[in-house]
Write a structure and sequence with these properties.
The chain is built from six helices and no strands. With 172 residues, the protein is mainly alpha-helical.
Length: 172
């Protein structure tokens, strides 16, 4: 079955109008803010933005690059929004009252857990097959050495953190 293309998805708009408008407005805003050509030179800034935007639209590679970056930016903004919403649910404006007397590292641990959960959610939403990833990570010829080193490094880091924390509390 053929996919329906709406008016907003037409090749004329996606290949020319949207990139033109994006570059025009960004460049115009930068020129207005920087006052590169002087104060109150709105017409000059608009004309320069207009010409550079037309040059941009006529070149294929920069247009494709900007398109890909905009797609990445939109996905990245959604992912950051999800992380912030999850963090807000847990910590709230002043944090949940159950975290009042908790160790400082607990909030960091929850934050790391949220980031790991969002990474797995993004992989799942992107259709990445993570079963091969886990199989490769835990059942490969190198995985036992890798995990032994990870555990050793974590234990050393925890020991150093405890030593530093107890050293600071004694000096206070």
């Amino acid at each position: 079955m053929a996919e329906e293309v709406t008016f907003l998805q037409s090749p004329l708009l996606t290949n020319f109008v949207y990139p033109f408008l994006l570059i025009f407005f960004i460049l115009f805003a930068v020129l207005e803010k920087s006052k590169l050509f002087g104060d109150k030179k709105t017409q000059v800034n608009a004309l320069i933005s207009f010409v550079i935007s037309f040059i941009f639209v006529s070149a294929v590679f920069p247009k494709e690059m900007a398109s890909n970056l905009m797609l990445f930016l939109s996905i990245a903004l959604v992912v950051v929004f999800v992380v912030l919403v999850l963090w807000g649910f847990i910590m709230g404006e002043n944090g949940l009252k159950i975290f009042e007397n908790s160790p400082k590292g607990l909030k960091w641990a929850i934050g790391v857990f949220i980031i790991i959960a969002v990474i797995f959610a993004v992989l799942w939403a992107g259709g990445v097959d993570t079963s091969g990833f886990f199989d490769n990570l835990f059942n490969s010829s190198w995985s036992s050495k890798f995990w032994n080193n990870v555990v050793f490094i974590v234990l050393v880091a925890v020991a150093l953190a405890v030593m530093i924390a107890t050293g600071k509390s004694k000096s206070s």
